[in-house]
Amino acid sequence: MPFTIDFLDDGRVIEWGTTADGAVPTERDDYTPRFYVAPRDPETNSDLTKLRSVYNQHPDVVATETVERRPGFRRDKEAVLAVDVAHINRVSTLARQTRQLSEYPIGDLACFNVDFSREFRYCLENGIDPTPTTELSTLRLSVPMTETSNDVYGELSVAGDRVVGSPRDILSTVQAALEAHDPDVLVCSTSEIIPTLHEMATDAGVDEFTLSRHPEIDYQQLASRSTYASYGRVGHSPARYNVPGRAIIDESNTFFYGETNLDGVLDLVSRSKKPIQELAWASIGNVLTAIQICEAHDRGVLVPWNSWRHEFYKQMGTLHDADRGGFIFAPEVGLHEDVHELDFSSLYPNIICTRNVSPDVIRCDCHSDREDVPELGYSICDDRGYLVDVLQPIIDARDEIKAAIRREKDQNNPNEERLAELEGRSGALKWILVACFGYQGFSNAKFGRIECHEAINAFAREILLTAKQRLEAGGWRVVHGIVDSIWVTPDPAVDDEEREDLSALATEITERVEIRLEHEAHYDWVGFVPQ
């Protein structure tokens, strides 16, 4: 299976697979990416014949066909138009032209499977798992901060060794390292190293220099640098580059590699089907969406280009009750001795899985008379939601990895490399689980729904209140609690003989709420300040 995929301007695709003898390229010239067009409203029953005839005459369209697909989790299979495109760079352009090419009123048609990243689309459509089958070789290139704005580097770190000298000296050292390591992955402190080194080679007349494994192409620019605004803050997005035959990890533009390690990245590659290079620059939400898209693809559900899920009608009282977060017990200001901290394990992801909270089953029509969600009265269908199938394997895997970490640490001489691998994988999965709840309320989420966000919070409030009541009944006083954690101290009004064992109480609460309550820590004292 390929670990990286290159797309050439003439339409050819090169898959790079790992073997014991190094990377091996496989070329394809018959790949045609596909997107879909369907009526936005299932009641419209729009005839797509005219649109199909127009697309069949378009020079960028290879073929069209009518197929049966589900345009949403709440819709059955229906006839949709599949459009096969000549080049991967033309998919979004053709989808944008749908309204101009057709005679349908604006808003009647919707496009699906449009805005996928290139390598992810290729793997999804061809059933490819981009997880490397052998260990990848890596090479790190790092430039000092003082050199980053220079057109010519006077200093560079190659595989941890500092190189200072003329452009020819630096280029020859890099070339020698490439030949010695033959890296599958180039880890760069900044992606600008790639064009800068090639420009240095051109200016110095070093014609034989290249970072690429492909004889015709040195590198490709995938995206330009840009600025963006998010939550009132302006951010910078670096340019992205591709070196044929090698995956690029830009340390200045990666979340998962920075927060975990290569093992954490590879774990998510196997779950999301996003190859290393794309996963390295992807956000948490981007990777979570990819995992959800894989589940949707397995169920024959198309992925909307733009989300248009309206919020279900609510009465004013329900809207007021729903617009709340997790429960917080304001801490008692002052010093508290003999304090125990208890935490619910992965509370929000486990609520999703144990309560079957998923966009496709929340407030279903078949059980509208039920009130399954506390306080809000929402119904939840008995059919298993797709989000449960997305998250449960991740929860189970992280529990197994954490258990393996504990076993490794309990050994007299723990294997540090094995620990680093396990902790990297655990950290990567943790971030996916952290984001899964908030993403349900994100307006641009492909499959999110605000009612899921509200239901998860409602269940969380009920669970924390249940824990509080049982702990107090067992002779413990709650001094603080926030969303999924609670701090208790022995209640001075209860005799020690009558106070119930904290571990036994945690086990009882675990069985009642179906989510594990863990004893996180025991503090000699805790001080809560006014602010």
Task: Briefly characterize the structure.
This protein is an alpha+beta fold and 531 residues long. The protein contains 16 helices and 21 strands. 36% of the residues lie in helices and 23% in strands.
Explain how this protein is built.
Helix 12 (347-355) packs across helix 13 (386-409). The strands form six sheets. A five-stranded mixed beta sheet has the order 10-9-8-11-16. It is α+β, with helices and mostly antiparallel strands and 531 residues long. Helices cover 36% and strands 23% of the residues. The model has no long low-confidence stretch (mean pLDDT 92). The chain starts with a strand and ends with a strand. It contains 16 helices and 21 strands. The longest helix is centred in the C-terminal third of the chain and has 24 residues, at 386-409. It has helices at residues 49-56, 91-96, 98-101, 118-126, 167-181, 193-204, 256-259, 262-272, 276-281, 284-298, 316-322, 347-355, 386-409, 416-439, 450-473, 502-513, and strands at 2-7, 13-19, 22-28, 34-39, 61-69, 78-85, 109-112, 138-142, 155-158, 161-164, 185-188, 220-223, 226-230, 233-237, 240-242, 247-250, 328-329, 334-344, 476-482, 485-490, 517-528. A hairpin with an 8-residue loop joins strand 5 and strand 6.
